[in-house]
Amino acid sequence: MQDSKFVVYSFIACILFLGVNGESPYRFFTLKVTHGDIYPLGVKQKGILINGQFPGPTIDAVTNDNLIIHVYNYLNVPFLMSWNGVQQRRNSWQDGVLGTNCPIRPGKNFTYVLQVKDQIGTFFYFPSLFFHKAAGGYGSIRIWSRPKIPVPFPTPAGDFTVLAGDWYKRNHYVLRRYLESGHSLPFPDGLVINGRGWNGYTFTVDPGRTYRFRVSNVGISTSINFRIQSHKLKLIEVEGSHTLQNTYHSFDIHLGQSYSFLVTADQEPQDYYVVASSRFAPRVLTTTAILHYSNSRKGVSGPIPWAPTFQIAPSLMQARSIRWNLTASGPRPNPQGSYHYGMITPSRTIMLANSAPYINGKQRYAVNGVSYVPPDTPLKLADYFKIPGVFNLGSIPTRPPSGNNAYLQTSVMAADFREYVEIVFQNWENTVQSWHIDGYSFFVVGMDGGQWTPDSRRSYNLIDAVSRCTTQVYPRSWTAIYMALDNVGMWNIRSENWARQYLGQQFYLRVYSPANSWRDEYPIPKHALLCGRARGRRTRPL
To answer: Which residues, 6+ apart, have CB-to-CB distance to 519 below 8 Å?
Structure first.
């Protein structure tokens, strides 16, 4: 039965892309989602496995590949998978969040058809529904450059994935009940590296050789610092952008962010600590893995290397040191710096301020005073079928209100295709914020403390700011980005702190083109799942 479905969905996928994606190769993946026993911190828990693994298998692709991903939901609850950093060009139908897709019902399956158009770099997939992310279900996505496109570093001897983040011993449904009852989450119980706790994972290297470490913070509440005892980290890539190759002893990685480092095994042959520790948290959590030299006969020794804990200034300086490599090729052969983002004048400024209000006696989180409430029908379907009453454009203001009142709303902001906008994230809270925008990468042109004003533009980096999809905002600070709205669709803008996202710190940006053309946006998939008020309607003929 599964084989026949595989053939049918593969045929549909090929029809969808025939004549649109040219001759780019197809890669087929099957992800089977199940519950299983896991022991990340030494305590038995009910985790979410992908193909029986935690973390799930790596998805490897090359620029412009078409990915046909069959997701089978063997849980007893609905499920959705999303693709952090994959831009889904012209194709928000495949984004895998509740504003674009109906959940996959228990015992059912869905085939995601997506293309990694003009992308390279390090990303990850994760379960986006309910609070499933706290139970695992995540895995790495590696998008490789095409063979004829030069990369600005020699081919490494190996490529390691590091999926690090905070972890709770409580099961995900218990954490969800905490939030739904109006309480904040407790402090995490620990950190994990590739699903394992203290010294639970080993990276084996040969002396004198250089390796690529792709590090993603897949946690739900805590920034981390990453480092390797006695070894230097040479930064080479940030979420699809080649960077100037600065060297660091340790590096801060905020929620949802991904980085690539080159690490040379140039020390005495023995074992060394690979360390992740919490940043800007009430207390410091630490976990380790092992860097093992293949000819080593000596285990780890000495103290765990020091890193900053609460200090903001060194983290801010480090963030500002990340620069775009202007002469390196990206996914295309032309240099990254051939796109002069700083010479384009934004058509408007959008300011987004996070807050933590109590509404109806319960803890909520909000953007510009609006705490997002999921509708009964995915926004993308409601927009396509013109179903009234699901959402209203302009239901979230483009600037924070003057008062402190907050309210519940299905918030959707309107935008026009090919606008070029400045977005300022203003954070007046005492915690670090991490913001992600689906469907896009953007240029982080500035960040600083205090209130953003038009004069803040004097400090902008308009030459070699890095292009990425997730950015941090430090406590009582601001971060400014430039973004070209060149991707039509319904796109989620959210906090990567999963409790804040779940309780309302998110909204959708509807980027609209009146052309109704495949040139601007792909049509609704024939096999799209329909639910809510879209149930019973027809998608389209083949």
So the answer is: none
